[in-house]
Design the sequence.
């Protein structure tokens, strides 16, 4: 499972245009490089459309919005849609402010997205359901659990149909859903939430995987999530063995993505399909 997805990224080295927040720009660029793709982080409104039209995948992250980046995002998404380039949207903090929700409503009204990827609270808010967003973090009451898993799977399948996009939900249990099928991933470690930007990194990774596999978006998004989860497991074990902390965990996470191959992914992932 996912062997071809990983091979295509390494072979094609897809140019991945990320308009993300300045808190995580460096980590997003490095994880795109680590997986075998090529990042560009252009966000000037004057060149956003031109750069996006040359890319293989586009990552839009609303974590630190301002009027200039929003305009750049509009221009980049429009250009990507025109060129039929996969677009990943990370609705960071959806539900936390009116500005973010208005920006998202404008995006969904005007553009097509290949994947909408975020935490469960953000995607509940995008879907119009009650959510407990805490700033840019998911609320504990919204968590996907074994008890509510099937209910959440059905909700996100319906949201996928409504948005016309794969919906990728990260948490202790990850859900990557199309209207007909969902991948459930049970990998990763809670220490991932102690490092700023792991969700942003996953969105950039997803854009790279989709850029290398534009005809297989659901599997590309699922592979990215599984790879990030397995990398989190590997990073935690190395950190624990050496009695180290979150700084080392961050480095080991990047290492694990750079060394990720089909054998490592297959041997470490815990994935089912519903």
Sequence:
């Amino acid at each position: 499972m996912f062997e071809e997805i990983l091979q295509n990224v390494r072979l094609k080295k897809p140019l991945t245009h990320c308009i993300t927040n300045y808190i995580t720009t460096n980590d997003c660029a490095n994880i795109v490089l680590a997986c075998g793709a090529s990042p560009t982080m252009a966000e000037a409104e004057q060149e956003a459309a031109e750069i996006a039209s040359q890319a293989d995948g586009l990552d839009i992250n609303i974590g630190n919005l301002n009027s200039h980046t929003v305009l750049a995002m509009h221009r980049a998404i429009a250009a990507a849609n025109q060129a039929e380039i996969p677009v990943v949207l990370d609705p960071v903090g959806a539900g936390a402010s009116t500005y973010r929700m208005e920006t998202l409503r404008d995006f969904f009204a005007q553009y097509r997205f290949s994947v909408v990827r975020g935490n469960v609270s953000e995607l509940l808010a995008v879907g119009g359901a009650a959510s407990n967003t805490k700033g840019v973090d998911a609320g504990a009451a919204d968590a996907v659990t074994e008890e509510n898993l099937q209910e959440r799977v059905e909700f996100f399948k319906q949201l996928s149909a409504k948005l016309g996009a794969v919906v990728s939900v990260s948490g202790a249990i990850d859900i990557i859903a199309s209207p007909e099928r969902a991948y459930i991933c049970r990998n990763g470690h809670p220490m991932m939430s102690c490092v700023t930007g792991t969700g942003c990194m996953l969105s950039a990774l997803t854009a790279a995987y989709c850029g290398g596999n534009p005809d297989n978006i659901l599997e590309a998004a699922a592979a990215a999530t599984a790879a990030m989860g397995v990398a989190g497991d590997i990073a935690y074990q190395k950190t624990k063995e050496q009695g180290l902390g979150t700084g080392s965990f961050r480095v080991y996470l990047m290492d694990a993505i750079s060394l990720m191959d089909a054998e490592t992914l297959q041997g470490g992932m815990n994935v089912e399909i519903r």
The longest strand covers residues 15-19. The chain has one domain: 3-273.
